[in-house]
Fold these 4 entries.
Entry 1:
Amino acid sequence: MPLNPFRKKKEMPGGLWILCPSCQETIFKKEVEKRNQVCPQCGHHFGISVRERIAITFDPGSFDEMWGELAPKDPLGFVDKRPYDERLSQAEEKTGLKDAAIVGTARLERRPVAFGGIEFGFIGGSMGAIVGEKIARVTELATERRLPLIVVSSSGGARMMEGAISLMQMAKTCAAVERHHAAKLPFISILADPVTGGVMASFASLGDLVIAEPGALIGFAGPRVIQTTIKQELPAGFQRAEFLLAHGFIDRIVSRDRMRDELATILEYCAGPAPAPEPEPAPEQPADPAKPRAGQGA
């Protein structure tokens, strides 16, 4: 039977497909989500939130957030295209966070660790006074409790709206990391696309082990700025994770689906086997009605 040419076409629901910026393939969105936001065709790593990363990295329900109430101020009354206060309100509404850093303690294969993550969705993951304070605090907590420290960075650098105050966070975070190193405790720095500017020029580059996700942009100034400044053509893949690994700037590239297992293995090398699981309590045995209770005669 021929199709009715006057029948209204059934519309395809929106939001089911996404375009991979790397291989240009159109991919079923659920397939990407199933792979922790990684393209099944080429392995491109899409950005994920810090809370998503916590969920796929640490033991379920083990993350205990700290200092979540800290909120940034506007000491300079900064205005560019929009007032800084307005940018902060919009970023909080978009992400549900008061600033770009989430820090706390968690467990990885039962091993307690300290964790910090920078949310790129909050003003480009830029580091102002609160981000610097929270990264410094969780590092000091790790030192005090003798915990391994894991920090995941995704940031455009220092937050220009806070001027010199934002630049001071570079020194503060580096000093906290140095004290952690002096205590002979491991610090693993994970670089997710992108990590640039003052964050890369401070604590993000100071890990005992620096791990990048595939294809991550890593550097201080961006490649366009460098090319314009030096007026030379840059090598292919310049400032991408693979280029930096080949030149000895980072230690490893680990895909997102292997990151949890890789971190567990590294921590076992650094600090010995993980604690044994706690034994489950024995089930209560039902009382035998034929047996006399304590205090009763036979």
Entry 2:
Amino acid sequence: MSSSAQHDQFRARRGWPRLLALAAATVASGLALGALPGVAAAAHHSSRPAATQRSSRSAVAASPGAVAYVYGNKPTVTNYTPKRGDSFNSSGGGIHIHRSGTGKYRVTFFGLGSFASQGTVDVTAEGLQPEQCNVVRWVPDSTGTKLLVYVDCWTVAGAALDSPFMAAFTPGGSTTGTTDFVWANNPTAHSYTPETAYQFNSSGGTNTIKRLGTGRYKVLLPGPVVAGGSVKVTAYGSNANFCQVDEWLAVSPGQSVFVDCFKPAGTPANNRFTMTFTASDDLLGDGASFSGYLWGNDPSSSTYTPDTTYQFDTAGTTATVTKLPPNPGEWQASFPGEADGAQGDQQGTAYGSTPAHCVVDGPIGINGAEAGDVFCFDTSGNLLDTLYTTQWMVG
């Protein structure tokens, strides 16, 4: 692809619908928006999400004690408070983003330090360029009062890149549906149980992982057996490798989710990742008042209704997908009746065995519907018609 100019005509898509939907966005008054007292002390570097080994915790179907998400909308700024309406901290504390170098970010969620040694983090690059963002780790700060989430962003070729991103954290739980997750922390093991502090199963079971070959994994979530749902996968670590969902199946005793990981050039690579499965709920598992997801299963059609088994929204309506010019590789997912305005978090993942990168540009409120754009690229940065999943929620 020659340059970013190809997509500049859409650069304002995330801005103007948000201005039009300002009235609807006032429901976000509970979001954490305050000014923040500087930068928190950094936890020591580790290959683990948290700084120390944690004991296992039981997985029970209950609403998570805390959830958070952030839109890192100023990728070249050293220190800032993220954009109003696009970030949420259920503790009521503030949120701060620090850029330590090209494409390297630390998100501080004040008041969530007690949850930092568990849970999972989902990350997606935001915007309209061929890029990707990974979660590097999440840890408590030195005081134990703040949750620190580290994010690295890259070009699809593997060079560090200043990029907007969306990141979401949950310690686990679901009262309205199913939201299960794992941190796949042992990428070369043939078969193992990922660390229990960083996994959750809504049936109370224990999730396990098998490596089927280089960079190919099967995640078994032992119940409940749920038809449909959605999957988000995020590569974990400080390298430029990327991961995606290949498929998922409702097979007793639960869900089987297949994940593929690759080097920037698209060759298979063993890599750590986080994976979240949700059905009739959102990625946070908190039963958000406004949320939705779909599987983009028909990338070549100009307009279509995605498979209804693999879509959901809290308004109970049926989503549609429309291609955006210039084709290929650009779509807008629309959830009618979700008049939630210009706020919330959107995530996305490429689907299938062909290596691809998908970024998001939303959520955006348009004419009484909630919409989220998805843009997908091949490993050379060219727009690509491919299958994908996308999810959104409003805190």
Entry 3:
Amino acid sequence: MIEIVVLSIIQGVTEFLPISSSAHLIITAKYFNFNNQNLTLDMSLHLGSLLAIIFYFKKDLSNLINNNNKLFLKITLSSVPVIIFGFFLVQLNLIDYLRGYKIIGWSTVFFAVLLYFSDLVKVKKKFKRDFKYSSALYIGFFQVISLVPGVSRSGIAITAARLLNFGRIDAAQISFLISIPILSVVSLYNLQSLLINKNFDISLLNFLGIFLSFIFSYATIKYFLKFLKRFSLLTFVVYRLILGSFILIYAY
């Protein structure tokens, strides 16, 4: 029970921050020798985050579906590359090869540096005005890299958006919205796995994880956007550099 609680809280807090939820889940599970941490549970925790972001942006999503079909298509399009590549990685059983400490450590450090330089780019674009199909594809292909633990899907999406001259708030909103199709696919995959395996004991624990992940995800989205109105992304860059350094020291 305590394992599910801890992992759910980590998922909720780290999913939408540019610090990699998968890396934190993997490292925590390995360090504390959590038995329930596996790819299925890792993905199932994303359902709580999905529900949180849908609830937080319910008005925006309603407007997208009813009044802005082009923007809805762009958001969907941006998720296609990572879904396709993720599917093949899972089918070919290559995901586990990317979950080592060395890979996580180096990706955490390298993409912290990239995040830092992207945050220096001048703001020239607005999400609602300048988010084009080319922008969606550009960010979408960047997100493929987030399949490597330590990169951070949120972090790489924000990095890509900042490199396209979007402001921090707009970059975060883009990251949040384009996460919805991805989290939806991940959640459906996990539910399918639970039904196939008929593992009802784990599924009951997953409901607790979903609830806690929802609470902490919602709070993270809300306060992260408030944070970006006053501060840069440097705090997350420094955190990633420190975390990545400790991981690499341990790995080597």
Entry 4:
Amino acid sequence: MTSYLWDRVTVVGCGLIGASFAIALKQNNLCRTIAGWDSEPRVLSEALKSGVIDEVDNCFAFGSNSQSNSDLIYLATPVRSIISFLKHDGSRTKPGAVITDAGSTKVEICATAEIHVRPDRHFIGGHPIAGSHESGLAHARVDLFAGTPYVLIQRATSNDDALTRVEQTIEALGSRVFRMKASQHDQVMASLSHLPQLVSVALHDTAGRQLGSDFLFKLAGNGYRDMTRLAESSWPIWEDILRTNSVPIADALDSLAERMSLLSKELRKVETNPSTELSRTRRLFKHRE
């Protein structure tokens, strides 16, 4: 007889992350039943039809007054939707339920949980570093989390048993778990994730303005394509990220802009003095000399 870590799990948001989480739970026999909910009826219907979820958790439908009997709730929606769920729908979970999320920023989410999640429920903030510029149910895959970092937020009020169970679940999916504080997470992600996204979209926009013709993009090589792959990412998802981590991201942008300005000034000196030593620029290549 199979011993499951969870009896029933509800995945709220059946896009890339949520659907991949559901598939991976099934593959690894981590729960008996997987329920799902999504604000888009078409997505929810497809998730059920394709077997990503076993049943629909209608407790989270608008206007419902019923209570979900799932012992794990996995919130895989945009950041501000997660915040809204914690404010308005957390009471639809059962006492003792563990609620975790996959939001890309953590400070506002965890602060909301502190205020709105009832003491007899347990919230564990999380962030899988396993996304893609491709989104949606169609791109879900069982190995999305395998070999990737996964952050779990350690708070003073965290329930140790709930945190351990979520950690065991994530590790069973093949991820490497890192525990950290919410503020530390957001600061780190500003540099490692949010800044690269903005650089990618800004580079693509700048190239378009400089070239003035879509035809000339046919000359783009792998370097340009690699650098601008993230430019295809969804704006609604990124708007939430930018609004909930604005200061650390702005600080990262300012730091990058300062360095780029110094490089620009150095390169302009070459025109008047071809023997100018590109010392600042060379230092950026120091690991490749």
